[in-house]
Amino acid sequence: MTTVTDKIATLWPEIALLTGAGACLMLGLSRSLSWRRAAGPVAALSIVAAVALLFTQGAISESGHARAAGPLLAQLGLVGFARLAILLLGFLLTLVAGQLPSRLDPTADPHSPSTPGAPAPVARSMRGELFAFLLFSLTGAMLCAGADDLVWLFMALELTSLPTYVLVASARDHHEAHEAGVKYFFLGAMAAAVFLYGFTLIYGATGTTDFESIRAYLTHQLRPPHHELPPLLTAGILLAVIGLAFKIAAVPMHFYVADVYQGAAAPVAAFLAFVPKTAGFVALVNLTALAGPVHSRPASLTWTLWTMAALTMTTGNVLGLLQDNVKRVLAYSSIAHSGYMLLGLISPPTATPPLADQPLGNGIGALMFYLLAYGLATLGAFATLACLETRGQEAQTYDDIAGLGRRHPALGAILTVCVLSLIGLPPLVGFLGKLYLFGSAIQHGYLWLVVIAVINSAISAVYYLYIVGACYFAEPNEHLQPAPTALTTRIGAAVAAVGAVALGIAGGRVVDLTHHTTAYPMHAQMPDDRLNAMTQIESIEPPTPPQHLHLSSTQNRRP
Amino acid sequence: MDYSFLIPMMVLVPLLGGIGLAILPRSKGDDKAAVQALALIYTLVAFALSLALAAQFNWAHPEEVQFRRHAPWVPDFGLGFGFGVDSVSLWLVLLTTFLMPLVVLGSFSAVQDRYKEFYLWLLLLEAAMIGTFIATDLVFFYVCFEFTLVPLYFLIGIFGSTQRLRAARVFFLYTFTGSMLTLAGVLYVAWHNARITGQWSFWIPQLYATARSMSSHQQTLVLLALLAGFAVKVPLFPLHTWLPLAHTEAPTAGSVILAGVLLKLGTYGLLRFALPMTPHATARFAPLIATLAVVGILYAALICWVQRDIKKLIAYSSVSHLGFCVLGMFALNTVGVGGSVLYMINHGLSTGALFLCVGMIYERFHTREMSQLSGLARTMPVWASFMVFFCLASVGLPGLNGFVGELLTLLGAFTATDLLGPRFAVAAGLGMIFGAIYILYMVGKVVFGPTKSSATHPQGQHHPIADLNWREITVLAPLAVACLALGLFPSPVLQTLEAPIESLTAPARRALQSHAASTPDPTLHHAALITIDPDPLRPTKADPVNLTTAPLAVSPGPTP
Predict the structure, then answer these.
(1) Distance between CA A301 and CA B422 in Å, rounded?
(2) Residues in chain B within 8 Å Cβ distance of A551
(3) Could you tell me the residue ranges of all domains in chain B?
(4) ipTM of the complex as predicted
(5) What is the pTM (predicted TM-score) of this model?
(6) Are the beta carbons of B538 and A298 separated by less than 8 Å?
(7) Nearest by Cα to B249 from B322, B369, B157
(8) CB neighbours of residue B367 within 10 Å
(9) Each residue's pLDDT tens digit, B449-458
């Protein structure tokens, strides 16, 4: 049992973010324009501070663990890696959100007759408090990664989501945004209810909410003759998985995605595509790890995830074909990519030979790498859209961005690189990500799921190519012009595109990092000997499946 | 001295040169001449590098992969930028680097707008094509193979003619879908390899060994996956439908490269991967694939006959010609496969040249309709002589290059009595006759028909049509010389091809013999000896797809 002070000691980065959020909230509501303008830099600074704290903390708290001494980064563990990824992408997202608040009229009233169409007086307005919501949500996602208790996990997930409802509704002065905010809120609340119900069932089955205790209970329970998980627990995990599908935008909770992304301002859509998804996936990794090592998981869980993956990617890609709005296309691509990432979730690494330490086979590492790859590319694409407008409105449709590559070569190139990376075209990072995911899934024997995924990648190329085609082949749209966004938005977009290229060509180190930080199931604090004990118990059991016998024999052979 | 640095230089010069062109600051004045000159210089440097490589190549051992080097990419996955050349690769690299300067030179007048983009994509395409031929790491090969799509997509989409959007999209999707399936197949083989050796690797010889030890059923799956990518690229009937569209809509430079090199990526892939990796499946399916090739030869030839658009006619003739290539390859004997590789080079030269000729006509008349072009021999005698020359080369006139390859592929099919036999050769020979008919019909109409006024004064232009200028002659003359040289002296090339082809086709031939004798193949014995740990990671009960269970997985676990 850890005391409260112990827990707080691991949370300094989150505390830094919260402090920054508080400061932004105060600054953003200040009466002086220059104070309100300071909110953005303060947000960025607090993220930098959080990164710095994360590193010092990583060095202190994890050094005691048995993990092989490696570079500082490798000692972070999955939790640390996820938090680092959230912070880095969060920093980029803050850049992209840049001057978003300044485009809003502080006194915006949707019913007032003066507003429609007329651009807000840029210089005089500033809603700095938006940055506070950004930081709150980032904090929530980071807490999700570090959660070791069901209640904590639930709180963290809600902390991730609640600020995003506000962001969606308030970061754009358009009735679509309000509609999107309301839809997102109600569906989000429903999903929260579903996974909360799942959590209660888990609690009911095991009598505790602490992950460590749940695992201890299961180890105790899984003695022969009961080596099946309690049905109540399985049901709880399944419900939680389905509820969390909302966060990662997967079937059957994907209905909101297109409307919400379309309604939200482009930087906010980028935020939605990365932060809640990361939080959701990290939570899913945590929860599925509760079901034990991969070969003793209940079939229903594997089946559910398998079906979810296949349906999610197919639905996303097929519906993506039908769109003519780039934001909606990116929304459906968000669904489809969640489907690919589910491949990683069902192929977690195991400590069993013969391929115990092979990166291709470590689906969780692949998932983390892919989140990074996907986050960068999607962020770049949405940021490009944020830099453009037609007739005072955000550029959204294929027609809106027609001829982008000719009129604004840099933005066109950024969008193209990001979209090609989403297709998974070598040598961009999306290709490495797909190789990692698909290779891991094949390693676990999901050949047909990989074939489905591969066919889906081919389908997805259709709509991604529409975007590229609109940029370069269509007649330029006369009304397309750069939006009065801050320089930071462009910098964010450029960094994302450069990152997509650089990580593709020189991604070896990052792959190594994702592999080593996730080489064992989440909370690798679950000691190896206990894991071995579990497999040993199974192998002693009377009707021995031959593969387990073999398994232990190979283990013994290991030097 | 170690000359292996030449290979990465060959890739990097066009790659970095192209990127450099693109980010060249937009100058106020007209920088077209400078951009063109730079592009030409980069391609010429690449050509010079490849010549230097050929000079340093040890021709005494052409089957050896020489100048081998390896740079890590993602060591965790066993991925690396491994490269090296044997004689097959080297000849195809030479073909590529030889064609590129001509293509650049040929595009000087055709591309007036957005020229920076144009040369950027051309140079990137060259880098990717060379990369494909030099790769010794399967994923590196795949990366380059796949990346060739992007430049050509843009070349067709931006610089093509009226239906370019559709053509670009269809081209990309067709080939992308196919090659994604190939990737799945590659991963499947690599996974097997990892299970045997405990280590992921994509080094091609390593994967050869693994794939050969797979069961016949698994090899069939792998062959199908490989065919999905390569047969689309070739293109093999009935997967050829993207090609005429792409060829017709592409700008001249795109068509030349497409016909000259990109289609060869498909046949090269078949030769380099399908044959040595899946000998049993290849031996089993060779008659089927050869049948498709023959159907393609005849079908495309018949379609050519009724074309009214010269470019479309040549595009379909490509489908027909590549059929010979595949036919020879799946004869699985040295004659057939050697002829097939020679045919790749020959087809690249003669069809590339034909597309250049048609492009020159299109620049002058803005039409490719045979009905509007007639009697050009009188108005453009120089062009007409080149056109007739390349048409004859393409038809396979003895003495010119097309003849040798065609003859050898047919001979290969004819003599492979245990596999294909005379039936295939005779049917394909019929295609040769059709080929002569449609090409000569086109030549007769366009070059020698009655002179029409539209041919002298197109679209109300009042000045008469000019014949080829010196630049255009410079483009076509080297091609003509090459066609003649390869036609008269094919044996030096063939001799250097023999050894690598021998080693690439040996497993398939051995598999064939064992099938014929209906005794289990020695490699199968070998497979049975390899004991593979059954994958304990795979939940047998929970796993909804159990189709991947390896039939050859022999558990070394304790026997009851």
Answers:
(1) 58
(2) 536
(3) 170-233+518-555
(4) 0.78
(5) 0.82
(6) no
(7) B157
(8) 16
(9) 777 655 555 5
